[in-house]
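Thread: DUF5106 domain-containing protein, structure

OP (GT): Posting the sequence first so everyone is looking at the same thing. Length is 271 residues per the record. Can we get the structure tokens written out before standup tomorrow? I want them in the notebook alongside the other entries.
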Amino acid sequence: MKDAMIKKLHSMAVATTAVLWLCAVSVTAQTTTFPYPSVPDTLRQPQARADYLLLHYWDNVDFADTTLLCSQDYGEQGFVNYIDLLGRFGKNVGPQSAKIFIDKAWSCPPARRRFDSLIDQYLDDNNSPLRNDRTYSLLLNAIANNCHTDSTERSRYRFRARLAAVNLPGDTASNFAFTADDGSTHSIREYSSQRLCLFFYDPDCENCHTVWTWMQAHPLPADVKILRIKVNDRLTIQYAIKATPTIYLLDKNNIVTLKDCTPEQLVKQFK
């Protein structure tokens, strides 16, 4: 499943590159099946062009055409390019763009089901190369605030949005006290002068033991200190722990580098 997703995303990379190209130069022709909007020639700066594209990305899409939306070349490819753009260039208009997209998609039940599935597939799967909790949180908040989302769903989406938004890469990791395996008590702020790998685990979790054994066979650089931390209810919310083990990589000053990564992603970070 993991290899298949990576292979599929690799095949989509060319189209993603084309969308990024739209942000930098004038659009003179449509070369893909997805109906990208034409960016005005008067917009010269890449960020300005990206802002326009994000705000008008879905203008030419008929969300009632379920045949097109369910095709990989149109619906799925268009969505993959959109979340890639939103993650790269959404600092100015991200929330507004997410609202426009969700308002359009959620007004048509078949489109809603289609994109709800794609959002989870590409943004909530640890093995997805496009996983981006910042983008995920934007879309979840837009769904929670949409008029077609009922009260029960609204609470669920808001909770998921809060989890996605905590301890994002680039943020300072929230501090907490923990008891080490030797019984001593510490806080992660004590280790702010060095890089940290936080390994959240459950002693009864068989997968935790499997992953830990794998990590011992693939050692990290000597200057990275690994902290093994038993999960509890407080940390489950504070660090968005959905399953164990959960792994974070912190740079010096406790800046989050990787959030909830796989052990393979952790090791790859140092190659």
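GT: Both are above now. Quick notes for whoever picks this up: The chain has two domains: 2-165, 177-268. The two ends are 24 Å apart (CA to CA).
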